[in-house]
Amino acid sequence: MNFWYRVKSALTKLFGKNKMTVTQNQITENAEFEDAYEKQAGYNIRAIFANTVAMHVTMESAAGVYEQNGDKRTQTKRTELLDKAVQRLWFDIKRIVARVCGTGGAAIAPYVEAGEIYYDIVAQGCIAINRMRGDEIVAATVLADEAEINGYKYYRWIDYSIDTDGDKNVLTITNKAVRGAEQSPVPLADIEQWAGIAEEIRINNVDRVPFAYIKSPADNRRVNNVYGVPLTYGHEDIIADIAQTLKQIDKEYELKEPQLGIDDRLLDVKGKKPRQGIYRLLNGGSVKDKPMWEIFDPAIRDSSFYNKLQNQFALLEKAVGTSRGVLTDRTTTAATATEIFSSNRETHALVEDVRNAVEKGLRDFLYACNMLAEYANLTPPSGYTFSIEWDYSLIENSSETWAQMLQGRDAGVVSGAELRGYLFGSESREDAQKAVDAIAKAEPPLRNMLIGAGGGAGYAEQ
Predict the structure, then answer these.
(1) How confident is the model at residue 459 (pLDDT cuts 50, 70, 90)?
(2) Which residues contact 277 (CB under 8 A, 6 or more apart)?
(3) I need a labelling partner for 162 at 20 to 30 A (CA). Which of 218, 319, 412, 422 fits?
């Protein structure tokens, strides 16, 4: 039974939903995206492209949760709980972003266990979006988990629905378990890892479902934009051509093996078949005119094939909308910030689009975590602030940027704490200022040594 019929069965039999806005084509297409991205055999160009973009999106970046009190960042029990959940998620962020870029989207569904917040990564092919309000999902059915016990497959479905009750929105979360492809309902308590999950939860004053859906920024070329599509969507012919060229290169090298032709007189036994790589010469003339051996060693046409491959890589990069260097080899090394920005402008634009989608998804994830923490009374409530520090080495020359910051310090528009913040991005502004003040109060020999090492004055002077 394919996933569409499982979704249809779950919506109608388990949750009593007779009207479905999600279509069979949408569910089937999402499953095809998943299959293509997860393919193990052959050349998976989609996965290579998605992983490279994900690396540019996430490398050397960090996220955190805290409470902002004026200029100070503090921690409460609630922000510590939320920050711990974010740090768990950030450990998987590259893998999540790669899946978003390669399949069109993914969901992150938090849940509470043993007083902590954990999460499940749900593939887009396992999400049926039933209703939206603007760009917010207000009803969805998700295949959240599966288990195998005594040879039987069990599946856990979650249905989320936000409905208006008077002047307030009420979220209903319903968990159901089924067995096998026929999806026979079974109690949640029958499966050990699901035994502690409540079958139904209702929460008031909610404006979105309690999971994050991160959608690829690629254009699906349709008016309906409910689901995302892979970055390489619509360029399957180019990908097929690249795979064909790679096969041709493999075949070229395989056929390149030198061959040695020898005269029958050099064989030990007449009529014995020569070993691999050696063939018997044909007697085309008199014996005295026939050479005793010949070597067949054709040149590899690697330059022609690799030139073709690089052109195909460049075509796919242009089709997706990135600069050279995602699949192609870089031909120049940019020296200045202007050159770096110019050579990576298209890739940076795509990276920023993906980062915006990730940031929106993570804010929804925190909203859901905070909602669950409130419902389960995990900690006393408090406000929270979420921030992401993205890396910009793709378009920056760090040495040039540092020189500009030092000039700003000399002009009185950049502080020592800002300079330190550039070097140690994980520090809060408050911690950076404390470190700057400590250096300023250091013993003269230490302070002079820091200044003499270069840049130290920037830390000590405000």
Answers:
(1) very low
(2) 257, 258, 259, 260
(3) 218
The answer to whether the CB of 113 falls within 8 A of the CB of 376 is no
Gap between the Cα atoms of 227 and 213, Å rounded = 10
Contacts of 101 (CB under 8 A, 6+ apart): 49, 50, 53, 54, 216, 230, 231, 354
- Whether the Cβ atoms of residue 347 and residue 101 lie closer than 8 Å to each other: no
Tell me which residue has tokens 């079958």: 199
Rounded Cα–Cα distance for residues 460 and 449 (Å)? 12
Enter the pTM of the model. 0.77
Write out pLDDT tens, residues 368-424.
999 999 988 999 999 999 988 888 776 555 666 667 777 777 777 777 777 777 666
Higher pLDDT among residues 25 and 373, named by residue: 373
Q: Is 356 exposed, middle or buried (0-12, 13-18, 19+ CB in 10 A)?
A: exposed
Residues 6+ apart with CB under 8 A from 311: none
- Rounded to whole angstroms, the Cα distance separating 393 from 56 reads 9
Half-sphere exposure in the Cβ direction for 137 (13 Å, CA):
28
The residue with tokens 């006393």 is 380
Q: Residues near 174 by Cβ (< 8 Å), separated by ≥ 6?
A: 15, 158, 159, 161, 199, 200
DSSP states of 394-456: TT--HHHHHHHHHHHHHTTSS-HHHHHHHH-TTS-HHHHHHHHHHHHTS-HHHHHHHHHTSSH
CB 215, CB 364: distance < 8 Å: no
**Using one digit for the tens of pLDDT, what is the confidence trace for 162-219?**
988 777 889 999 888 888 777 788 888 888 888 878 888 888 888 889 999 999 999 9
Q: How far apart are CA 29 and CA 228, in angstroms?
A: 11
Query: Picking from 100-104, 164-168, 394-398, 439-443, which range would have the lowest pLDDT averaged per residue?
Result: 394-398
Torsion from C-alpha of 217, 96, 83, 423, nearest 10 degrees = -80
Facing residues of 67 across strands? 74
